[in-house]
Write a structure and sequence with these properties.
Distance between the termini: 19 Å
Oligomer: single chain
Structural class: mainly alpha
Length: 126
Amino acid sequence: MFTSENRTRALGVLLALQGALILVGAVLLGFTGSIIAPLDNVLGSDASIAAIVLGAAFILAYRVPTRAWVNLAILYNALAIVAQFWKGGSFGVHSTASTTVVAVIFLVAFGLLYPRGESMEMAHQH
């Protein structure tokens, strides 16, 4: 169905698209703040800044979408789905169907395009 080169290009586009969505969401969160006390600041970190960096990194991975970046994107989407289900009944925070649907779409797309038994790095160099 997909050649190695087309698969690599499609994965790059998916990473860039997901990165853009994460980046926009993180910037909006940074400007609007959180309803809950900023626990991340207590722990010496800033979740919205971390999300901005992750989104930007996914966008930069567009040119060379290595297996490591695809694995991180799969992990991000799987955790986003789990978090939405966890939020459904906890701490008065409600889950959003759109977040779950988008994460499922990306997870399925990354899973279908995942390079099984081939090197993405080699396919990209040709």
